[in-house]
Amino acid sequence: MTRQSTLHFHRMKDMPSSHLLGTGTPMCAGCGGLETLHTLYDILGDKTVFVNAAGCMTLLSVYPFTPFRGGWLYTAMASAPAGAQGVRDAVDILLQKHKLQADEDVEVVVITGDGAAYGMGLSATSAAMDRKLDFIYLCYDNEGYGNTGQQYSAATPHAAITSTSKGSRGYPGYKKDLFSIWAAHNPAYVATVIAAEPLDLAKKIEKLQSLSGPRMLISLAPCPTGWDYDPQLSVEIGRLAVQTGVWPLKEFIDGELRHTRVPKQRKPVDEYLKLQGRFRHLFEPRYDSGAIAEIQARIDEYWARVVS
Amino acid sequence: MTRKLVTGNSAAAWGARLAGVDYIPAFPITPQTEIIEDLAAWIDRGEMDARLVTLESEHSMITAAGSAASSGVRAFTATSSQGLLYGMEMIYTVAGWRTPFVLVNVSRGLASPITLESDHNDIMAARDSGFVQIHCATCQEIADGVLLAYRLAEHPQVRVPAIVNLDGFYLSFTREPVDLADASKARAFVGEYDPENLQFRGNSPLSQAMAVLGGGPYSYFRYQAHLALQQALAVYDEIADEFAEIFGRRYQMIDCYRMEDAEYVFVMLGSFSTKARDAVDSLRAAGWKTGLLRPRLFRPFPQAQIRQLLQGRRAVAVIDQNISMGMGGVLHSEFTSALYGTGDAPLVASYIGGLGGRNISQQEFFAIANELEQAYEEGAAPPPRLLYTEEELTEMRKLQAIAQAEHAQIHHN
After folding, report:
1. Among A46, A174, B228, B276, which residue has the fewest nearby CB atoms (within 10 Å)?
2. How far A52 CA lies from chain B's nearest CA (Å)?
3. Which domains does chain A have, with CATH numbers?
4. In Å, how far is A58's CA from the nearest CA of chain B?
């Protein structure tokens, strides 16, 4: 496929002004995952086949309606990357045999939540990277099994209340470092993104369009229903995730790790946590300085390694 | 046409090669692995124009087979036993996609305990999935069965995936002379893959496998798949006739052996039925009017044909190489269900045999014939039997004695 991007994202007015993805989907108001998908789809265009795993976005296409202008295939929770393999291989075979014309080629994009990406689907994802499958993978990471009511997953951050960690200390585990796990496979591209930083997101999409092979995106997806906040705060919470250093924006390409946004003056993590009901127990009935200090210390430790 | 001495696995690979498959998602498992090794070797040597990709599991493998077939290419894949079960979520899922491709299953007993030998519980687990099932008893049937399966699966009135089943070891590793169809004739018989409306391409919106809301649309699509499988019965006969015209071998959906005047009938699936065939000959020589009935097509289940073939017989022994725990033989249930309420139905007796490759001896077939005769005279079917001999029990007791002695030794120390 020819991958000549003519887009250059320098400022907000360079962003696509209308959305390809149709309206009226059953996604929640303020869904951070849907915002990332909009930007991805707007930039990739409609010659795209989305291969979906069980998760919130399963409900994007409900018979007989679809918001997609191109292709959509629902698979199962564990095997969306394998579904992408079959589509990619079939299209390649048909192109090679001249049963498809070059302009009928498609970009194959896996979309899964963190439940599939961090857990059940990790083996299929790992193998797709082993095989150097030419595809894009978007994980919308809302840090829990959101579609079933936000039970904790391997992506859930320390201390978050979920519907299976309702105790006074929240989730006792720590968020798994999927970025590093993916990067260890040395795919063509790995990046973390967030819809609240659209230029960073657009630049990364533009970059992955110029590459072939496995191109992997993890988008932190602020989730009003799962994180318990007012939908109008989604963008603000997303920005705070970056400004506090909770969600480092970075990319891994040709064996090199680069942070695309290093906050000069990181805001205290309190500002991010206090807007979300899942962390309310850290502030009420009394300020849990110990737990918050531990969360802050982990963030500081991370950035100390980056900046040094 | 070439006559070659090939194993059942190799015959399956030849079937895929002759069908002109484009794409083979693969994953190794005993006793199937030789199929994908043969195909990989042919592709490497440039003898076959296809792409083989090893996935990391059968779950992924079946997903890729379904998604490739949904994207416009002819796909083939193969598995066995634990692999079929590991991929079972996708077996049901891709059948619902109504995407035609062929999967060869080499039957092997299921864990636990784990074994490598032949048994039909694996394939029975896929019974209700929406796949067509063709069961083979010879290597010739395997090579031909794959060609028939593609035609049936891809037929406009059917459009579902198909499984061609063969028995591990008994067929997978047994060499038999096989007439391999002439490549161009085989291709002409199978034809070009027509993806119909299933093809992802740029400039053409297509949604596959969408969610539905509510039982109305869900039931509609499920009924559609069921009706398509039922239509496959009539379509099968058309295709089998066409195959016979070209290749000279007519595969009935139910294989009958010496059934013309048979009073007592053995019913079996797959290659173990050849043991019953021998027994029929011996019993006939001793003056018994016995016969063998072997469904080749198991899904769709040819109920009307079974009724017709068994009406007026004295008694039928259904010998299941599977066991539905707490119920008994699956085939037995299906036969009694097909025959219930029809006038002049024979008595139907249930036997479980051949689990995990366990032999069924000629003496056992003779004993079964005796029981059938007695049942007929008494007018009542005997209780279900789990075939097992005194000798086997003695051998089992010896193994247990060793296990107990070893256990005692460990605890003594």
Report:
1. A174
2. 10
3. 12-307 (3.40.50.970)
4. 7
